[in-house]
Design goal:
Elements: H1 25-32, H2 46-58, H3 61-64, H4 83-89, H5 102-123, H6 129-134, H7 141-147, H8 158-182
């Protein structure tokens, strides 16, 4: 394996207690966004974060470094949390329910569905309506993404699979960006307020 240039992030598998012990793709993303060190940054949609978390953990140490050019690209690809939800979710031991925040939940669902449809269209994959239900009409984007890694045909070598994965991660980011724009959603940042109407 070639040496990573000094100052470049070295991505590690799994969660880390602090940046001094290493960081995964999303932990670096949180730091770049100015958020607390976490593998679930608020500025990245939960389904996109799940795809990225799984990609980080499935790749070998050498192949994981191919994700470095994507660092920071996912920042803002989420519906900004309403201030009420943000305050409640930061209390230790408390969780908030999206059902209590219908406009936010609708915007999150619309973002995921739109990104899923853009992604499948870009791949040229026609997902039958019955199968869309398996993916919650596109809202379960993590499951959809990984099932489509075998489409249109399975790749036969590990390097080809890694190439496909990196290409599709780039495509998924593009689909999220297009979905945000087409839905008129503001990019989520640590200082974002309520969901735009």
């Amino acid at each position: 394996m070639s040496q990573v240039p000094e100052g470049m992030p070295v991505l590690g598998r799994g969660r880390h207690r602090s940046p001094a012990r290493g960081a995964c793709f999303l932990e670096y993303t949180a730091l770049l966004a100015g958020e607390p060190f976490s593998d679930s940054p608020a500025c990245v949609d939960g389904e996109l974060a799940a795809v990225l978390r799984h990609a980080n953990d499935r790749l070998s140490a050498a192949d994981r470094q191919r994700l470095v050019p994507l660092l920071g690209r996912a920042i803002g690809l989420a519906v900004p949390e309403p201030l009420v939800a943000r305050r409640r979710s930061r209390r230790p031991g408390t969780r908030w329910d999206l059902r209590a925040l219908p406009a936010y939940a609708t915007a999150v669902g619309d973002l995921r569905q739109t990104a899923a449809h853009l992604f499948t269209a870009a791949l040229g994959v026609d997902v039958p309506p019955r199968e869309w239900r398996w993916y919650e009409s596109g809202r379960d984007l993590d499951r959809l993404f990984w099932s489509l890694m075998l489409e249109p045909t399975a790749v036969t070598t590990s390097p080809a699979w890694v190439d496909r994965l990196v290409d599709r991660l780039v495509l998924l980011h593009e689909c999220y960006e297009q979905a945000m724009d087409s839905l008129g959603l503001a990019r989520a940042t640590p200082d974002s307020g309520l969901v735009p109407s």
